[in-house]
Each structure stands twice: as structure tokens, then as C-alpha cells.
Amino acid sequence: MKNYNPKRKHFVYSVQRTGIVPVGVLTPIRTNIHSDSWFDFRGIQGYIVFAAGGAPTLDLITINIYDEGTGRQLFSQAMSFDDIVPQLNDLAATRASLGMIPHTPFYIPTGLMLRPSTVLRTEIVNNNIGGTGNATVRLAYIGQKVFDLLQPYESPGTSFMPFTYVADFASTLLAATQLTVTVPIQSDYDFDVVKIVASTSLRASALDGVFMTMTDLRAGYSFEDAQIPIHLVTGAPHWPFLPIEPIRLQKATGINVTLNNTTGGTIANASVAFHGYKIVG
Fold this sequence. Notes:
By secondary structure, the protein is mainly beta. The chain has four helices and 22 strands. The strands form six sheets. Strands 2, 4, 5, 6 and 8 form a five-stranded antiparallel sheet that branches. Strands 12, 14, 15, 16 and 20 form a five-stranded antiparallel sheet that branches. The model is unreliable at 89-95 (pLDDT under 50).
């Protein structure tokens, strides 16, 4: 069990841009780090989809990341998107069966601590040839808000019981519909989330089609700065989402899970599972 720090909370900043044109135009995206906390930047997940036209490749999308507050950059030079979050499998059969190419997240070897109110700048270049489809880039910057740098970690407890809370969207998520489900946290014990997984129907849904947010009802705390594609916050097929550290949910409270189905089709058996453990003692 990982130690617990009450002044650190799971958070994801989103970097999203549509219509990135080919032929080497640099597209900067500036992410404002909230003023209420530091951000311990620990990982990246993402995907790219292309509009119709030509035969573009992921390998020709390059990315670099800068902390504008210090002038530091994350990579010595711009890297191919596919080298940052590699494809799990590029076989044609896998593409056809899943309708998408899942990617493994990139976990930074050590955290990059970003100051409150600084800016994280992401520079994206689409080096595909002219005539290929414009790119839509969706990135999730995974980490923790840190509200007190001096707060020490403490033991999460001495006795634990495995448990899973489930957000069940009444089996069906209608087309072009946004729906929120409240998951009550039972009154017996606090709960630590260590893994988040969506149902097969959601994980196999059209890439760039379903977006998600989560809110801790105890303090009205949102875990993301915007709606994030579900594949970036619940994992791709056979790859669950693993937060940097367990997400503590207090007993007798709850968590709201919102799904926004922007596709033209209904998604049956929609649910999101939060695997973890109750802190018994």
C-alpha cells in the first residue's frame, strides 16, 4: 500500500486541439496551471485522430513540452508522438477489431513540480505532407495537485479490504447525451482508488467520441480541468488507468461521474469501475 498525503490530490490537465494542419506548422497550446496549488506532473496519455484525406502517420506528429515559468523543456528536442505514448499493437487485425489503436501511457521517471499560475506550453508540429487530413490531438497530463509542499506522507492504514465501486449508467448511454451518475461511498470506511476501468462497450466505443469528468462530492473537487476523452482516463482495451497514487474518497460521501456521448450511436452496458480497497483500520 502506498502512503497517503492529505494535501495531494489526483488531477489531470487536458491538452486538446482540433484541426492541426500538415506541412510543418508549429501549433502551441498553453495550459494554465491553477493558482490554488502546485502540480506534480508525472505522466502523459494521449491519442491522435486524422480527418479524411491522404495517408497521414502518427510518427510525423512531433511534440515538445516547456515549463514557461522556468524555461525548462521536457525533451531535448521535439519527439515523435508515437515515441512518447507508443502503440500497444499496430497490427491491421487489431485496428479492425478495436476500431482504434491503444497507446501505453508515458510515466515520467521523476515528477516535474510546476509552480502555481505558471504555464505549461505544448508545441505540436504536423509534418505530414499537404493534402493529408488535419490532426486532432488529445493529451492528458497526469499528476497531482499539491496544496502544501511541506505536508508529510502518512501511513494509509493497517488493515485493508479489496472493494470496487461501480458507476452504472442504467445500461444505456444514448447518442448525443450527457449523463451524470452519483456513486455513494459507503459509511463504513474510507476508500482508495488504485485502478479505473470502463466497460467493454465504452472502451471499444469510437475514438474521440465519449468524454468524461469526475467530481469528489465531499469538497466539490474536480479531478480534471475539462472533459477528457474516456480512453485517457479509464484506459484502453487491456490497459486500465492507473493514477499516480491512490485517490482517497472519504466515507459517507460520493463521487459524480459524467459521461458525454458525442457519437451518433447509443452505447449499451455503459459503466465505470473504481477498483481499490477499503481502509478498515
